[in-house]
């Protein structure tokens, strides 16, 4: 890997900031990552990775070992001396559905006085169209440049996605600044798309919106499969084999969740609305997702022979809590949303997730109140009237179904929201089975 003289600052050490900093250091750059969360900075300086992310610990430790990666408190300490500063702070959903830019604006204000002349500030956070200009306005510096470089990594495969991206998108009004950022990716073999800031910002939302649309589409098709007696797996195989459609992101489930699709799909609708366009298709994509959660709750109610509004006395065994496998992230998890509704209807929920059976991460602590956590997967079967598979953790598929039936009682239904189990195997163990789009 080539050692370069370019110094990078990264503001925010969450899923995106930590991955960005560690991967750029791995690629040969010198990186200083700053966060306002003292606990996170301390953990990182003690060699602990605060999130579950495959392969991240290794590259963080390797880069720190050769002195290319440092963790400091605050944005200024990260940006001092940096030639290029990446803003990787949250852009949560505001009250009206639009993206809340206050963290970005705050970070920009913090670093404005200490930026080196000629420095490039990069919006890596997902920000609405016009945010490059908004950051320029906060900085009030005509000797620095602002560039958009949206990130497309997924949680769980963040390191791989960052180091082997399908493309890198850079948006800038200044060609030289765009090329400076592009050079950082020189060691990666991938197309680099340089465009204007508004297009780069739109690409990010359009990509997430399109992926959410694929999943909503397949969930709607799954509902149809149940109605007409078709098998969604065969249908997905049949349509996904058409290269114009592609087989990826067509797994039916309890609806899409996570820290990005929900907020970004709403922000996309809002951005369009603010510019005079009614993005009705995206609204439909969101509606189908809401319906999908309702359909899952109806499946649970049907499994125990009750109406979904009255589940008092019902014990639900929950397999998985995170918004998908491979992450510890509970933000906007379909499991958490469905569990909240089941609990509101009076159900008791006992749950196991591989990321909640040890010490809880800060994200998790605040959200798990009222859910009884078990130490082992099999324990969720104890006394369960219904068992829900919320997350597709591969190890769940290896559970001993005879033991599940013994602990829960024969006839208990498994509502398999991820189509993880073989229905025949579940039924052979004496359990009931209900999947998504399967008959
Ligand atoms: N999580 C994901 O998979 C992806 C997220 N994104 C976008 O990236 C952005 C960041 O997302 P995450 O990394 O998930 O957020 P996160 O919440 O995991 O991390 C953000 C970090 O920024 C820190 N922070 C906030 N203000 C700060 C400041 N002024 N100075 C220093 N640190 C500060 C917070 O303490 C936190 O550690 C969002 O816009 C998100 O939409 C984009 C692609 C993927
Ligand atoms: O902007 C972001 O934050 C990121 O959002 C998503 O990444 P992520 O949220 O980590 O997770 P995904 O793997 O996309 O899954 C999102 C949700 O869709 C669900 N999903 C995904 C794929 C599928 O076929 N079916 C399905 O139900 C998942 O279970 C999960 O709830 C995008 O995939 C990333 O490209 C993007 O960078």
Automatic annotation (TrEMBL):
Pathway: Nucleotide-sugar biosynthesis; UDP-alpha-D-glucuronate biosynthesis; UDP-alpha-D-glucuronate from UDP-alpha-D-glucose: step 1/1. Keywords: NAD, Oxidoreductase. It catalyses: UDP-alpha-D-glucose + 2 NAD(+) + H2O = UDP-alpha-D-glucuronate + 2 NADH + 3 H(+). SUPFAM superfamilies: 6-phosphogluconate dehydrogenase C-terminal domain-like, NAD(P)-binding Rossmann-fold domains, UDP-glucose/GDP-mannose dehydrogenase C-terminal domain. Signal peptide: none annotated. Its EC number is 1.1.1.22. The keyword Oxidoreductase applies. The keyword Oxidoreductase applies. One of its GO terms (molecular function) is NAD binding. Substrate binds at residues 152-155, 204, 249-253, 257, 324. Residues 317-423 form the UDP-glucose/GDP-mannose dehydrogenase C-terminal domain. This is UDP-glucose 6-dehydrogenase. It comes from Ilumatobacter coccineus (strain NBRC 103263 / KCTC 29153 / YM16-304). The lineage of its organism: Bacteria, Bacillati, Actinomycetota, Acidimicrobiia, Acidimicrobiales. The gene is ugd.
């Amino acid at each position: 890997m080539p050692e370069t003289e370019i110094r990078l600052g990264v503001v925010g050490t969450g899923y995106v900031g930590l991955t960005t900093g560690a991967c750029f250091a791995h690629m040969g750059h010198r990186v200083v990552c700053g966060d306002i969360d003292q606990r996170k900075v301390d953990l990182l300086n003690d060699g602990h990775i605060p999130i579950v992310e495959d392969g991240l610990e290794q590259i963080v430790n390797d880069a720190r070992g050769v002195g290319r990666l440092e963790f400091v408190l605050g944005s200024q300490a990260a940006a001092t001396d940096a030639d290029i500063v990446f803003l990787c702070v949250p852009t949560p959903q505001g009250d009206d559905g639009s993206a809340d830019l206050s963290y970005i604006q705050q970070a920009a204000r913090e670093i404005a006085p200490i930026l080196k002349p000629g420095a490039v500030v990069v919006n890596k956070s997902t920000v609405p169209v016009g945010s490059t200009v908004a950051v320029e306005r906060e900085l009030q510096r005509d000797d620095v440049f602002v560039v958009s470089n949206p990130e497309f990594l997924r949680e769980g495969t963040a390191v791989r996605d960052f180091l082997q991206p399908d493309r890198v998108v850079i948006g800038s009004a200044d060609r030289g600044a765009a090329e400076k950022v592009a050079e950082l990716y020189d060691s990666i073999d991938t197309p680099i798309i340089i465009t204007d800031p508004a297009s780069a910002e739109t690409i990010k939302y359009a990509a997430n919106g399109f992926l959410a649309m694929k999943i909503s589409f397949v969930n709607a098709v799954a509902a149809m499969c149940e109605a007409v007696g078709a098998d969604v797996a065969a249908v997905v195989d049949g349509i996904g084999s058409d290269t114009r459609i592609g087989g990826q992101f067509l797994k039916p489930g309890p609806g899409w969740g996570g820290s990005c699709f929900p907020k970004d799909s709403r922000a996309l609708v809002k951005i369009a609305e603010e510019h005079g366009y009614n993005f009705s298709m995206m609204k439909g994509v969101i509606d189908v997702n809401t319906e999908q959660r309702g359909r899952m709750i109806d499946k649970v109610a049907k499994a125990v022979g009750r109406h979904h509004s009255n589940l008092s006395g019902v014990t639900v065994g929950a397999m998985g809590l995170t918004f998908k496998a491979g992450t510890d992230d509970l933000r906007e998890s379909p499991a958490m949303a469905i569990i909240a509704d089941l609990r509101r209807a009076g159900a008791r929920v006992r749950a196991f997730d591989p990321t909640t059976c040890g010490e809880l991460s800060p994200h998790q602590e605040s959200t798990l109140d009222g859910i009884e956590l078990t130490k082992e997967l099999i324990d969720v079967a104890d006394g369960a009237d219904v068992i829900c598979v919320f997350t597709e953790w591969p190890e769940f598929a290896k559970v001993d179904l005879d033991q599940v039936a013994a602990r829960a009682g024969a006839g208990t239904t498994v509502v398999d929201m991820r189509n993880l189990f073989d229905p025949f195997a579940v039924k052979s163990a004496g359990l009931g089975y209900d999947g998504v789009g399967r008959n």
